[in-house]
Structure formats: structure tokens, C-alpha cells
DNA sequence: TTTAGCACTCTCGATCGGAGACTGCCAAGA
DNA sequence: TCTTGGCAGTCTCCGATCGAGAGTGCTAAA
């Protein structure tokens, strides 16, 4: 890692111009283009000198000797940290997002799916959405349904109207009437508790009351962090958008990325760790530990749901992306999603 | 469409050899290769004559004058209808499938997801799975949960332990106690009925009993055909497999296909109409109405669940695929899926 | 009906060369 | 000291050319 080299104002303007031009055209940008489009007062020779410096300090690179310059990961990082102008989503985009949610089904899953869809659409990249983290969510309602004599379906309604289900096997046959009574009792006992609280109380309960204990254990399991992590679903949409980017003409890159998307677990890990601190987190190229993301950037943020519950939402695209615009749109969709989720019950 | 030309036995053998060789190598197969590998008794010149005939009758085509022959859609169709030897899945594949389901979560969605995953894996193509068609499924249990004073969550457990949920808004505020009483009553009334029966009885009920009527209406809606069709989810997996096939090096084809997969509705239509008659339905190339499937083949069948309920499962791949093997594996996964679904409640 | 022989066609890959785009460096000018 | 014009050098890209290789269709003989 190079130590942070301070950039004087002109170098900053040149770096900014290179990033801006390159993200739009996709072509390495040369000194003449810069002089003509962005720095009429300067000659191309002067800009060449500056460009050589920026290459030396690691902000830019040349694909080959006689080509223009393109940003390095470091150059993009400097750009997003210091140079990027804040952008606002255009009215057209706002309308698209609003309309998308209008046709969303009134369920958490349905809304998140719509969010993934519209985010992919407006950013023209692949969108990612994790299911909400529920280990701290309070339980709102429990229901027990007899499937077979010794087999019970547990239905949990959590804060934010999120529904979890789990099948449990009992040692003794139990009728639906028994189950209904048990459900009524459980509702009195567990309502308003979180999984953590429940599991603490469970430990204090002792080994008696077999069926009930078994059921509560399974309830805890189905909403605990461990479980959630193991099978966290990462929704994604918009893979077709990637095909339009010239950086994916060689199929091998696409293949790595697809594998990452289809297996999900590794991505889930990245999404869970990240993005709970800053408002929007950007990870550029090799900053990602995953080798499949070597030439991709992630723009991530979170969405909220019933205050305590939340998940991650964002996009993944080539490092050469219009960061300002993507950030604005990711933020917009995240806010809209939170809002729609908040109104779910009304 | 050419009228069906009868093929003598030697032409059949040659067509079969061309299809077999081409599906493995991916290279147009010439008269010399055929003579050497499949017809030692014949000279290449004889085979050339036969090949010319097969081109004339539309079973084969030449990419260009000096290339070997490849099957046309018609050639593939003849092959799968009359020439294809039945194959059985290998023990290795059987084991893979069995193991995949062992780690599946005990829910319909989870099992179908696993099915899509393992089918993509063993066929090395894109797998497709529709959600089960539930309009004829009997209702097993109803539960009503108060989300907000005027907002109720309906939870329906159907035959096969399939869970449907729906949010409904009431005109009057209703407490959870009221809802629980109503649920108990509904359970007595609607248990064992199908959506169709329920909707018929609803019509006879008259306009009184507002809340209850509203709730039943929504129940019917959430499991009726129309609703199901509108939002039938088509699971798919294994897009990365396509990248390995040389027919998808040009990205435009991939793009069309991805769009079809990501929007889903059109595919859902194809999957629903098809494959309820024969055991395994094969659609080859231009037999598909969708332009995105011009150069693809579908191999589809159904899976069962609680007898009445069923959905479609299959794969989509390039027309040049090993049909015998794919058919065997699609059938295997479909059977395994049905079996696992049948044991869901035990 | 089958086969050997042969001329012909087309693709594919390698090679080559020129146009174009930029650069780096140098020396002169502000 | 910074800037600039000039210029030689380098590299990619594109199109043309060419030869090898593969495979065919046709013809005439078996």
C-alpha cells in the first residue's frame, strides 16, 4: 500500500476529470482529450506531466505505452472520498421507484424482491438485498398447526410482520386442540420477547415439559443469528445488465461473479459485516477480499424495518461505474424500501 | 414445415451418429469421421451421399460448404422421438441428488430451491422450477393475526403443508381475541375445502357478515389460479453453467435468455401450459415461441405433491445437449422432489 | 449401389503493414 | 521554475493476404 500522497488542487481536478470521462466513455483518456474538454487553458504537454505524476503515485495507470490513462482502485477511492460531487436522484428515477413499490405485494419478501428489481433497473447493475436480520426482533404471535400426529408446524410472526416457519417433530402424538391450547399459552408467555431473551429463559426452565420446551427451542432456533446466517438469502437481480458493460465481454469474469451470486453464502458474509456504520459503504476492486470481485465495486447501505430489524441493500458493478449516481440511487431505493416496510401493517 | 419423410434404417443410423457425435464434440461432423468411428464397413463417399439426402430432407444442415453436418431442429426432434436410447442416471448422480435433499430445509420452498440447485448441477444447464399450483389444494388450517387494529394477516396452511399468507384491511378495528374466535370458526367451516369450492359457497353467502366475508374473499384470492399465475415464481439456478457452452460466447444470446429468466412471467406461462400430458416434454429450438429460446431446448416434466398439487420442473440449455442423459436426470430429480415433498410432514 | 479419385470451396490462423493515437523527452520560452 | 511546441518512438487496431486443412460434390468405374 502506498502512503497517502497529498494531491495539489490541479492534480485533483485532473484525476476527477479522468475518472468522470472514463466512467462515461469507457475509453482510456489521453492528454489531448483532457486539454480540449476540461483544461482549455493548459497545453496537452503540461497535462502529460501531471498524468505521469499521477501514474507514479498510483492513482492512474496505463493499459499500454501508447494508451491514455485509466484510474486505479486507489484513484477511484480518492475520487469517491474527496472529489465526488453529491448527486440527487432525478424525478424520473424517483417516479420509477415509487411506481415499482406501488405494485409490490404486501409482504416483506415481496417488497424486498421489488426493491432488488427496481434497484437493478435504475442503477443498471446487479442489485443485492439480504433478508432482514431478526435475532433482535420481538415476537408478535405464535401459531401451532398439526401436520401429522407427531409433526407440528410452528408459525412465528415477528415485529415488522415478518413470518418465520419451522417444522418440529414431537415424541408424542398431539392433537390440534392440544396444540391450540399450547399456542394460546405460548402467546401469553413469549409475546414481545426476542430470541435472545427467550433462549435465556429457556435455560432457566429446567428439563420438564417436553413438548413445549422442544417447540420453544425450535422457535429460538428459527430466528437466532446462527440460523439466519447459515441460510441468509441474498436476493439479486439484473445480471443481464452486466452483459452490457464492456468489461464483461470475456466470459470468465462473468462466470466467477455468477458463482458468487448463486452460492450466496460468501456474499451474505460480506453484506452482513459491512455497511452498518457509514451511511453508504463503497468497496472498490481489490479492496474486496473475494477474488471474483477483483474488478468490481460494491455500493452498499442498509434498510430499516421496525427500528431494530434491518438488512443490507446495494449493488455490484464494474469498478468503472458512475459512483455519484449509483450512490444516490442506492440511497433512494433503500429509503423507499424502509418506508414501504414501515407501512406494511397499515 | 416439411412433411415427415420416412427414413430408411441406414439413414436413421447416420442421423443418430451425427447427433451423438455432435452433442459430445460440438464440432460439425464430416463423412470421414462417421466412416471411421461409426461405419467401418462403408466408405466416406457413400456416407456423403446419405448426408446430402439428409440435408435435402431437412434433418441436417451445413454451417458452410466445406464443413461437416450438424442436426437441424427437425433432426433433433426425430432423434428424441425415435432414435434416442433410454438412459438411466448413474449411481454417482443418484447419490448427488440424494445428498442434496438431505440438507434441504423442511419447507416446500426450501425443497424446491434445492431441487433447482441440484438439477442445475447434474445437468450442467439452467434449471427451472415453478411453485406448486394450489388452486385445487384443500385447506388444512387458517390463522388470523392482528397486525394493526384494522389490519389482519391471514395465514393459510394447505395440503402438502404449503403456507400462503395475505394481509387484509378491515373496515372496523378488530382485536386479536375477535380474530382468534373468527379463526376457530373458519377452521371448522373451511377445512378440507378447495379455493374453488370456497368461492362457490361465498357467492351463496350473501352480502352480510362483512369482516368474515372480506377475509374469506382474500383467502380465495391468495390461492386462486389467477393470482397464482400472475405471480408464479419460477425458480432458476445454474446460469453460470451456460457460460461453459460455446454456443453462448456471443453475449447477445445470453442476454435474451437472461431477460426471459429474470422477468419470469413468459417462462411461467410456458411451464404451466406444457408438460402435464406426456411424462417428459421436450421442446427444441424454434419449436419454442419465445425468440429468446430460438437456439435452446427445454426438457420439462412435473413433480407431485399431495396428489392434486403439482408444479413443473425442468431445464433449459442449448439445442446441442445430451438429451438422453438430461431426460434421465430431469426425471430423477423430479421423482426425488416428489418423494421428499410427500414426506414433508412426517 | 458403392467407391476411388479429384477439383473446388470455405474457414481458420498466422503474418504483415500501415494508420492512428499517445506518450516521453528535450530544448526553448515565459 | 513552470509551461509549451516539436518530434521520435511505441503500441494497438484493423484489414489484407496467404497457405494449410478439412470436407464436399461430382464423375466414372467397379
Mean pLDDT of chain A: 87
The total beta strand count of chain A reads 10
Question: Approximately how much beta-strand content do the residues of chain A carry?
Answer: 15-25%
Q: How many structural units, i.e. domains of chain A?
A: 3
Kindly report the spatial arrangement of strands forming the biggest sheet of chain A: 7-3-10-9-8
- Overall shape of chain A: elongated
Distance between the termini of chain A: 52 Å
- Class of the largest domain in chain A in CATH? Alpha Beta
**Gross CATH architecture of the largest domain in chain A:** 2-Layer Sandwich
Helix content of chain A: 40-55%
Cα gyration radius of chain A (Å): 26 Å
**Which stretches of chain A are poorly predicted, pLDDT < 50 over at least 5 residues?**
none
Predict the CATH topology of the largest domain in chain A: Beta-Lactamase
Q: From N to C, what is the helix and strand string of chain A?
A: HHHEEHHHEEEEHHHHEHHHEEEH
Amino acid at each position: 500500500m502506498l502512503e497517502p500522497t497529498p494531491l495539489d488542487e490541479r492534480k485533483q481536478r485532473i484525476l476527477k476529470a479522468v475518472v468522470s470521462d472514463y466512467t462515461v466513455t469507457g475509453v482510456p483518456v489521453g492528454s489531448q482529450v483532457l486539454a480540449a474538454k476540461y483544461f482549455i487553458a493548459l497545453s496537452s504537454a503540461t497535462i502529460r506531466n501531471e498524468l505521469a505524476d499521477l501514474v507514479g503515485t498510483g492513482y492512474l495507470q496505463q493499459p499500454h505505452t501508447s494508451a491514455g490513462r485509466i484510474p486505479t482502485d486507489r484513484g477511484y477511492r480518492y475520487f469517491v472520498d474527496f472529489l465526488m460531487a453529491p448527486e440527487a436522484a432525478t424525478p424520473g428515477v424517483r417516479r420509477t421507484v415509487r411506481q415499482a413499490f406501488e405494485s409490490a405485494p404486501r409482504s416483506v419478501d415481496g417488497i424486498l424482491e421489488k426493491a432488488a428489481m427496481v434497484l437493478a433497473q435504475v442503477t443498471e447493475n446487479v442489485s443485492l438485498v439480504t433478508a432482514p436480520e431478526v435475532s433482535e426482533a420481538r415476537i408478535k404471535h405464535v401459531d401451532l398447526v398439526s401436520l401429522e400426529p407427531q409433526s407440528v408446524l410452528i408459525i412465528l410472526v415477528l415485529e415488522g410482520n415478518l413470518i418465520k416457519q419451522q417444522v418440529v417433530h414431537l415424541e408424542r402424538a398431539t392433537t390440534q386442540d392440544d396444540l391450540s391450547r399450547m399456542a394460546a399459552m405460548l402467546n401469553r408467555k413469549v409475546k414481545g420477547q426476542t430470541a435472545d431473551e427467550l433462549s435465556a429463559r429457556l435455560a432457566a426452565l429446567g428439563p420438564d415439559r417436553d413438548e413445549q420446551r422442544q417447540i420453544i427451542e425450535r422457535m429460538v432456533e428459527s430466528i437466532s443469528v446462527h440460523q439466519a446466517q447459515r441460510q441468509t438469502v441474498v436476493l439479486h437481480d439484473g445480471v443481464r445488465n452486466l452483459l452490457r458493460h464492456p468489461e464483461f465481454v470475456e466470459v470468465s469474469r462473468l462466470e466467477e461473479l455468477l458463482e458468487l451470486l448463486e452460492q450466496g453464502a460468501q456474499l451474505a458474509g460480506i453484506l452482513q459485516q459491512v455497511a452498518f456504520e457509514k451511511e453508504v459503504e463503497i468497496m472498490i476492486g481489490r479492496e474486496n477480499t473475494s477474488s471474483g470481485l477483483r474488478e468490481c465495486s460494491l455500493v452498499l447501505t442498509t434498510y430499516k424495518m421496525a427500528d431494530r430489524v434491518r438488512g443490507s441493500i446495494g449493488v455490484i458493478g464494474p469498478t468503472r461505474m458512475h459512483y455519484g449516481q449509483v450512490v444516490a440511487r442506492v440511497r433512494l431505493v433503500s429509503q423507499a424500501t424502509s418506508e414501504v416496510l414501515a407501512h406494511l401493517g397499515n
